[in-house]
């Protein structure tokens, strides 16, 4: 009789543990093609508004590969196997204003590595998206040694400032003379970032729009010598930018009345 009670107790314990494991695993869901918030909410017995609140999603748009938390009370307790698994990689949840380059600088990894680890075909990322930061070993922000080949914002700004005083040249892409987009092309490639040659409007279309720039991001201007995006520079910090103007490469304040009047926004490549 005692043996029977023991077996029943053991079976109940296994059932409870199994249910707990299922709940923990079901606390997040990786979005697949064709998924909707409504469909996920029905699958996990919650509401669309709850999913939006938990994941800081302002609309109804979700993307394949995005990790959606389905339970705001998800247990933080993990088994030893889960702990071992989490120690092999670090993740980061994308916040408003983030770009791959900013995240790369923060964690000391390259944009190309972030794209590879997360199967990204472009630089576009979305609020609420969970990114793998390191594919092989854990790392804390700013503790991993940065490779000299990884372009950073400070390297871009340092390279840009080296050319202050260089004369303007229409279509110029060398230290003998630059135009605004040719200057960007030269500086970014010199600093280690592979960048194709295009004009200011082209770089504007390629960039991720941001509201809080970091040194090395781009500054765009409109309606200068032509309508639309027509000029650009490199944000250098302290409300200044480096650019190839008609007077040559110079460091200029964004408070300058002319440039302030033609300001179009910030972008990150």
State the distance separating the first and last CA atoms.
Answer: 72 Å
How much helicity do the residues have? Answer: 25-40%
The biggest sheet amounts to: 6 strands, antiparallel
Largest beta sheet: strand ordering: 7-12-8-9-10-11
Pfam family, one: LysM
Keywords: Hydrolase, Protease, Repeat, Signal, Thiol protease
GO molecular function: cysteine-type peptidase activity
Domain LysM: 27-70, 90-133
Write the layout of secondary structure elements.
Elements: H1 2-25, E1 28-30, H2 37-44, H3 48-55, E2 67-69, H4 80-86, E3 90-93, H5 100-107, H6 111-117, E4 130-134, H7 153-161, E5 173-174, E6 177-178, H8 180-190, H9 200-206, E7 208-210, E8 218-222, E9 229-237, E10 240-245, E11 248-253, H10 257-261, E12 263-268
Antiparallel strand pairs: 1-2, 3-4, 5-6, 7-12, 8-9, 8-12, 9-10, 10-11
Helix pairs in contact: 7-8
Organism: Sediminibacillus halophilus
Region (Disordered): 71-90
GO biological process, one term: proteolysis
